[in-house]
Amino acid sequence: MSGLLELRGVSAGYDNKRGSSGRLVLSDIDLSVREGEILALAGPNGSGKTTLLKIAGGLLNPIEGSVVINGREIGRLKKRERAALTAFLFQVRDSPWPFTVRETVAQGCFARRGWLGAETRGDRDKVATALEKAKLTALADRPITELSGGELQRVYIARCIAQGAAFLLLDEPENNLDPKYSYVVLTLLSELVREGKGAIVSLHDLRLASRFAHRIALLSPSGKIVSMGSPAEVLTEENLSRVFDLSAELVRSLIL
What we know:
Number of strands: 10
Strand order of the largest sheet: 6-7-8-3-9-10
Structural class: alpha/beta
Radius of gyration: 18 Å
Strand content: 15-25%
Order of helices and strands: EEEHEEHEHHHHEHEHEEHHH
Low-confidence stretches: none
């Protein structure tokens, strides 16, 4: 049986600066993703997509509910155990440090061995494989400050590959990319999933979600899942009009 990442009855939020109960961002979230599957998160800004990814990877504790990976609660796993199971790609911003592509991808190995651990031949092999899969071998010695947005995004995905995690958690990987590079990045993700990884990815572009996701979880502005299923089941005029508060005509422009 393939690996399974589950959120069970999860509610989450953030305390405000004065230490009161704060605001609830997610409510009663039940979802799962298996290795070999892409689950896309869709919904308006503020619907909790990034928070859900943080919860799924153990970066944020839920107020209620639990996150379970292969039958084990993520909160009980050591950091290196979590690193073997989940890898993150949050929204890309320009890097101020001119690491080479190879050096940046090699950072994915630190999650397992720690920053002070010596690089092994196995690490070098993982980096070489990651560069090849992301079609970055020819750019391996180039500083990442000289890359285009699409190339940089592929570098960060390659870093996740080098980490060797079973599940990839990606926050708007198409953000600030032109249509060509958005397609290239999602195609790379799809290839990784076909090789056995699982992925939860938040997407603003619903056409990309329809093209690449096996299932979609549609979140409301209040942080609840209003529909989950195949793209055809979820991306309906009724669902999208309600969640995005748009006319049917405008909704059709989002998905056609």
